[in-house]
Give the backbone structure.
Amino acid sequence: MALDKPDQPRTGNPAMGPAALLRAEVERLKADLIKAEWKIAELEARADIDPLLDIFNRRGFERELARSLAYVKRYRTAAVLVYIDLDGFKAVNDRHGHAAGDALLKAVARQLTSHVRASDVVARLGGDEFAVLMWNVSDTHAAAKARELEAVIAAAGAGEGAARVSVGASAGIVPLSGDATPAAISEAADKAMYARKKELRG
């Protein structure tokens, strides 16, 4: 029959008394809790980011839009939503493959983030749809910026030589109203984008 081993302290110095051992265990648990909280915060933040483009995804955009509407309502400041759809992106995927499409999406995301202010929000809503939330802009400035973003997207491309691919873009603009819901703003922006697409084709 095997003899039971004598009890050993689980952590800390064996020479420490019970109270000191308890304090050491409490401090270790506090440190583990802090690490876990940081990890949770990191994972929650990454859940709002598009893993391919490293900009906000739809979840992150919807959170930022709701926050922006609340801010506009409270402080009566000006903000707009620019809703962007890429023109001809499906053909890129069909003819050149998804790797070329992904490279092009990355190029578009870089152009968008480099042509707006750090305080503005750039997001990919899914597929080939993007959104930009811009603050403290007049209607004239917003329209000019939307046309600029269309141009820089059209000038962007991926690949080299005959393999280089590019797309156009249609950008609809909607001012943010503190009395509107996020769903209503998104719907209005979607309609504005399709109106712009029809205008470009006409």
Notes: The chain has a mean pLDDT of 88. The helical segments are 18-46, 58-75, 89-96, 98-114, 139-155, 182-201. The first helix runs from residue 18 to 46.
